[in-house]
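Xylulose kinase
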Amino acid sequence: MVGRSSLPDGALFLGLDSSTQSVKATVLSNELIIVASETVNFDSELPHYKTEGGVYRDPTDDGRIYSPTIMWVEALELLLEKLKPKINFSKVVAVSGSGQQHGSVYWKKGSQAVLSSLDPGKSLVSQLKDAFSTMDSPIWMDSSTTKQCREVENAVGGALELSKLTGSRAYERFTGPQIRKIYQTAPHIYENTERISLVSSFMASILVGCYASIDETDGAGMNLMDINKRTWSKAVLEATAPDLEQKLGNLAPACAAAGRISSYFVERHQFDKNCFVIQWSGDNPNSLAGLTLNTPGDLAISLGTSDTVFGITAEAKPSLEGHVFPNPVEPDGYMVMLCYKNGSLTREDVRNQCAEKSWDIFNNYLEKTPPLNGGRLGFYYKDHEILPPLPVGFHRYIVENFSDASSDNLKECEVRAIVEGQMLSMRGHAERFGMPNPPKRIIATGGASSNESILKLIAKIFGCPVFTVERPDSASLGAALRAAHGWLCKEEGGFVPISRMYTGNLEKTSLGAKLAVPAPGDEGRELLKKYTVLMKKRMEIERRLVEKIGRA
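Predicted structure tokens:
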């Protein structure tokens, strides 16, 4: 059996993550141990772009949220400069990456030539600043394409038909509806576009010096790919915009090599000319890889700018809720996912208003308030929510027969309501989507996974143990692991199960998950029954809210 010895001694594997608020790097050794990491935060380190949370919000177009494309280019340059003193780039044999899902980049006509002839004596920003037909990249937080979503769904026979075809019904943040909006509202931009990239394939394109393919896993987050055939769906392409297939290029498996690294990076940063760039993919698929999530009974919860719940399955069963993507590290399998737009930024808002902008005070309130919060339920939507499809707003309820114990301090109750409400919603939707109930275990990742008070609440509400990984940024870790995996597949001339790199050695690597909160005991099981009742009450209230003011 091939083990970690398959990876050459002294080799390094670089994983990059271009996310909403930052770019990150994680470097793995051939022993799959983290040897270096680095981060560039957009707001604080690139303040001249004047983003807030890495994005712009258009005050004239309800729900339009985007980022400046060139900022991601400058961040990549800065990240490599910060990483240079920490590692020898010539030892990197493969690099891969993670991009925030659904975001799109529009290369203008003639840009392929620019990309393939970059001058290593000049910065990327100076050479690519005029390479785009629009400087604005719509991102996953955008919710301005409701009209386009309905048009695409109607064209293929309805929301469920589109879901069966592509793995998801039409969602405003998905790339297909975003492309359709540009085609309809700014046809000159669409006409002048030579290639449309996702954030993932955009960054890969810079590294290889030509247009990199969109990978099949991230491609499933566009409402454009046939989830079963893993090719572009002609019917949906035609319903979206004309001549779209040639602007998208071909799809590629996530474990394939996009090509060797561009001579620009060889000469400017001293990468080895034989270093491979493995297909980039989306941030959630990379997290799935980084968490070594390969057991169907396990769930992962990522607590970041968005909150996501995901797991794996052997077959695709798309529905009107949630998403089905190809598994990025298992060619015949799938990953299933739920996504919430109101994650860490919404928790931070409540912290700022109720806990003196202090996580210590926030956690203290969370610990001292009794479970179930006296039946208080809160729905907090700083931005238009994806799941459920509700507009900006805040809704508070008190459920009868849960008032046996509660705090008199409303700020304390508000803190518990935001976290308890988010976790109850995750559990309710996960069960409705057919995810394990209860899960064998939950692996928590993302920034808030380092918050023990939140992890304790997850264990109580889901009724299972909660594990965490060594580093909360599992997307860049997963990208580094996928770089090693892609290199191994290339070396062996075909697909190799990713587990072959770590089976029997997981605890000796940086990939192992450690128990953070054990499963609830007898007392916890009684509480779990009460949480089950409260969860059902919440889902009923949510259903009524959607009927009354829902955005779908």
